[in-house]
Amino acid sequence: MEPRTVTGLAEHLSLYWRLIGIKFRAGMQYRWSFFMDLLSTGLLSASDFLAIAILLARFGTIGGWQLGEVAFLYGTVITAFTLHDMINGGFDPDQFSLHIQHGTFDQFLLRPLSVTFQVFASEFVLRRVGRMLQSLAVLALAAILLRPNWTLGKTLYYPIVFLSQYAFFFGLYIIGAAITFWTVKQIEAVNIFTYGGTELMSYPMSIYAEWLQRFFTFIVPAIFLNYLPALYFLDKPDPLGLPAFTHFLAPVAGFAVLFAALAFWRVGVRHYTSTGS
Fold first, then answer.
1. Residue 37 has pLDDT above 80, yes or no
2. Model pTM score
3. Using CB atoms within 10 A as the burial measure, which of 18, 28, 173, 203 is most buried?
4. Cβ(178)–Cβ(261) under 8 Å?
């Protein structure tokens, strides 16, 4: 069971920002290495979208979606995932499983702070900034190519969709981390839904096989987080024929996954048994 916290929310936030400052100053001690890391990460990520652009240049559209429209899908989901991956690295199953294997998770339990907060604040991945800049550049390209008609409703809804995607990926990381309380080692299947889910959501959902569409609608609600909202933002018809209200279910899908993940996490913490390493 998590220990009772001894500080309030404001003090938690203050501590978190101090930890980020420490990470940043540590990275700046080797500035050339840091900026080269950012550059290499950004260029590697850019190659992913370049492959999409080449494909579209050859075939014109993907499932009826042109370059600017696919750039909107890609830029939105990659930006949300990268922000999550940068901030929530402590829950990355690959990283967190090492705490279970080496027995260092015990240290979190002994401190007079929330275990969840400690894991959350334990890792801030600065090198993800390179990928963040690349995904924002793709969003800028989408805006230039599309010049979408942003009504007040669309302007207010877009940040909600973005935060919903962030919550969705955060929830998947928490689930993956919690599973290691029982498996000790991270299971690769989690990456199918995190990195694989990001890749899948970068394209129009209508291009996938029907069974895959159903899986990512009724089992993993990814379709509600990027594809259906994008139809609303871009004024595109829905080839899947889903009701219009489904375009606005992003916060329901995203935060439902996050809240369920946090509940599962608490169960895992209560049943944690040290490896004794």
1. no
2. 0.89
3. 173
4. yes
